[in-house]
Amino acid sequence: MRKTIVSAVSVLSAVALLHAQTPADSWPTYHGDFSGQRYSPLKQISAANVKALTLAWVHRLNTGANGATVGGEGPDPRPGGGAPPSIKSTPLLVNGVLYVSVPDHVYAIDARSGREIWRYFWKTRGGDHIGNRGVGIYDKWLYFLTPDNYFVSLDAATGKERWHKEIASMKREYFSTNAPIIIGKQVIIGVSGDALDVPGYLESRDPESGEVVWRFNTTPRKGEKGSETWPDEYAMSHGGGMPWLPGTYDPELNLYYFGTGNPNPVLAGQSREGDNLWTCSIVALNPNTGKMAWAYQVTPHDTHDWDAAQTPVLIDGVIDGRPRKLVAQANRNGYYVLLDRTNGEHIVTSKFLDSANWVKAINAKGQPIRNPEKDASVPGTLVSPNTGGATNWPPPSFSPDTGLLYVGTSQTFSIFYLTDTDPHPQGWAAAERNTGNVGSALKAIDYRTGRVRWSRPLAMTATGSTGGAMGLLSTAGGLLFGNDGGGNFVAYDAATGKPLWHAGLGANTSNGPETFVLDGSQYVVVGAGDSLYAFVLQQ
Amino acid sequence: MGHRQGHRSCEDHAHNAQGGGRASVTSGGIVAALALLVTGLSAQQQALGPQTDPAAIERGRALLGQECGFCHGANARGGSSGPDLTRSALVQEDEGGKQLGEFMKVGRPDRGMPKFDFSASQYADLAAFLHNAIYLASNRRLYKILDVLVGNPKAGESYFAGAGRCATCHSSTGDLKGIGAKYDAVTLQGRMVYPRRGGVPGSPAYEDRNAVRATITLPSGGTASGAIVRLTDFEVTIFDAATRQQRTWLRNGDTPKVVVSDPLQAHLDQMLKWTDADMHNVTAYLASLK
Questions:
Q1: Which entry of A127, A446, B51, B238 is 20 to 30 Å from B122 by CA?
Q2: Closest chain B residue to A393, measured at CA
Q3: To the nearest whole angstrom, how far is the Cα of B188 from the nearest Cα of chain A?
């Protein structure tokens, strides 16, 4: 087993070109490969035969401690377990085994049968249990983060713990959700948490010892580049910028791309005049050293919680007849940006959320500049999108066959009330009251122009349009897998958005779908709430 | 963000809290979020908990005002020469005044911080106040909204009757009579912009009088209509008010044909048109209808 794992990982590490693929029988990292495209060249399942896609197995996660390997620093678990978890991680597939996680739990599941091989239970001290994006694998070891800020390594074969290291303080309202990304011998992780005004950082940890190799601060220290965009050292050292989602990687350029979080205080900017670098930015850095190569701020001086943590998708494309190495992002602020990923040069900015009402102008660098009148105010300011954003963490997909970037969106509105009028406000500093959603849709964006090629409205309920951000997967079979906001898992025609197949799971899919081949059969696996579902073609 | 309330995302970044409710977005994530709420695990959404001894907090507040406020401000957020104590890592990491006391007994004379020789219970009181302030800053569900009624009621009345077209459906002497006495200003403003409530305990969303409705053309040629329980590309379920039962038809393409009507369409259209000044003015006008 060890040998096979090593080979899967080394193939991934050796990927020299963006479209060179990982083996069909593996999904060894969060996005499947380093590009963040979530595009699979597999085409056994295609638009022509997808109607024959049928359930192979269902696996409902067991969150009880009995029978699990137990670790952690917290008290013994209450009998009966907690609330059902929501699967937000994309399972890794290595050597026929799926590794999936939810907060405080990791599972090894036989990908052919859907049966549990082992599970690991972490006794938590607390912290925000909002989600866990997944595990990373290096050699025979798994890595994951816990809500109470431990970096834990497990034996992939047995689920036995190797060690755990504390990476941040829970008392300062840090928590951890990220899926570790492994590049060479760097295990890259980031912290979360913006309830208090604490600084964000990305770290590389050694896969053997678990100790820090380098740390990148997402806000500058005194005298560093970017510090001129803050009023003082105090503001930037309390300035947030949590890198809470996994990034992408170009092996040729040896650059890791990730998005940073919103500045703090979150909804009030009076104590942090300026652009507040490197918050709300796409950052490119050298994964060996943690040194920044370039950064592009998608929302200067954000005042609405619109981080730039959404996947920076790597695309090898053609712009004005010239091949370019690109990075694209459908940002939470309602705008799409396309950059040259060698140097961060801006190419396209385009609005994809019609209802967005907060922008005064697009500047010469292509950045949407906020209308200060749309900042939170004491009597209330009506803003779209709400703090949840035009889209959010669920991974989008890009198909090189169609040239379309797919993203789930919603046109929410909220009234933002400034509650902390102190010259030095704290935490969120404002309250939000939702005032509805004028329309959720699955959108397909032309990567070259940013224009929306097609837009498919999502489900309706008694309270109006529903659904929005969703995990997506496109394939060479001409398919786009996602949900419809109404509890169905759907295969859409990737070119047109027409639904071709669906399964009524009863709950919306809650993670990014994935696909692989085992024993000659192509599987599609997706999580919805506390269960994983696997589909294959009916023989 | 609306984790507790309804947005999937926050979650996604872990942003919880929205106060009063009008959850509008529903998704699988929300189901999970609601489940958390119902099972009382929501406390786990945040590491910090409230301080439980109000008297200790008050003693700490007084002590801070007397002994620390000159440099650190009466609210501990920093003053003429001392930093914000509520953002201090030492304070945030402190447990019940222990680490704080150890620090204060020595002080930091080289930086102008004298030593303080308090009793253990005084350090604990000071810590109770500071940890309470930190908890209140970190928990946005507890933030208090300030004065919402800043608009001009006269201008609001004009907008109501004129450009806002509110009077097309509403009347200050009819359905809105006394509305200003019925709701607090924040609720009033929220409901004015978007009156629909999501499902509340004991009352499914499809029984709300403002529920979105569908009319379905049946294969027989007749029609059925009712509040939408669920409408997707593959199914339509409505609530039949006459029989008080849900009815479902599977869909294939546009068959059967479904026409959606939203009693609040004018409010959705207006959502894209409001200026904040108009919104404040009409809120002030409605608040005056007592």
A1: A127
A2: B12
A3: 12
